[in-house]
Amino acid sequence: MAQLRELKKQQTRERISHVATLMFIERGFEQTTIADIAQAAGVSKMTVTNYFPRKEDLFFDAYEEVVDGPSRTVAERSPGESALAALRRKYLADCEAHAALLGRISPGFARLTVESPALRTRLREIYDQQEQALARTLIEEVGAEGVAPRVAAAQLSGVQRVLFHEARRRCEAGQDEEEFFTGLAAAAREAFGLLEPALGDYAVK
């Protein structure tokens, strides 16, 4: 029974997110209200806000994974692997798997992240939170506070942020799936490679 309840909750969450996405693209983010989404999804406003406390998180519905994913990758890296190597390996594996989290979205959805002031603000918050989470993990992993883990976190999270915008650019250009992920993987190799001289040997497990 517990599994069935969790499945229904997940299905409800996905339905709300899907309806919201379509409405945002059709009407615009600011022009779409929580009440509109609730009515279209066949649920109450309270149900929507229980799953998504902020309207912006209906748009960035995978924000928790964006915030926590890099930290988890670093914490779970293999023996002998640096933080940089772990994040590069994970990103390239996601490109190979055509992972949805890397941001292959419709051109209309991509444009909204530029056109909406609220979404631009929320996106900055998400990547700031990612950087802070990564800094905490690096401090734990190297066993020392100070400037170094925070600088490393800023650089490594900066690559993730740049690659998100690169993904959006490729979506707006209308690239097909294969071109998108092949190009994004090449961009990732270049971006992480630029950090290799500084961070290639940092936080090796």
TrEMBL record:
Keywords assigned: DNA-binding, Transcription, Transcription regulation
InterPro entries (alphabetical): Homeodomain-like_sf (IPR009057), HTH-type_TetR-like_transc_reg (IPR050109), HTH_TetR (IPR001647)
SUPFAM superfamilies linked to this entry: Homeodomain-like (SSF46689)
Residues annotated to bind DNA: 33-52
Domain HTH tetR-type: 10-70
UniProt-listed PROSITE patterns: HTH_TETR_2
PANTHER family: HTH-TYPE TRANSCRIPTIONAL REGULATOR BETI, HTH-TYPE TRANSCRIPTIONAL REGULATOR RUTR
Protein name in UniProt: TetR/AcrR family transcriptional regulator
Organism: Streptantibioticus rubrisoli
